[in-house]
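Thread: Newbie trying to understand structure tokens

Hi all, I'm a second-year student working on a class project, and my supervisor (Dr. K.) asked me to get a predicted structure for one chain before our next meeting. I've only ever worked with sequences, so writing a 3D structure as a token string is new to me. If someone could post the tokens and maybe explain what I'm looking at, I'd be very grateful. Here's the chain:
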Amino acid sequence: MLRIINLALMLSMLVGVFALYAIKYDARQLEARVQMQERDLEKLENNVAVLVAERAHLARPKALEPLARGLGLAPIGPRQYLRLEAPPAANMVE
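---
Reply by user tm_fold:
Sure, no problem. This is what the structure looks like when written as tokens:
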């Protein structure tokens, strides 16, 4: 009887060891996956920072002016301003 109990306990211990090994293996795989995703996230955040800086650089007036002139655009002329003191008669509401 004692021998059967010892055998059952040893068998359950072996099952526990294999289950623990499987859990540890899965945990290491998940940890590696999380680390890889964190590295990817860090790279993407760096890419976003570079793109924001590049956009700020390209939005400078010195960079936009040659492109605008190439499209036939020109600076605003004095006739294009609207005086607020004397609104046009067509816009007046009675």
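A couple of things are worth pointing out once you decode it. Residues 2-68 form one domain. Residues 2-58 form the longest helix (57 residues). Feel free to ask follow-ups in this thread.
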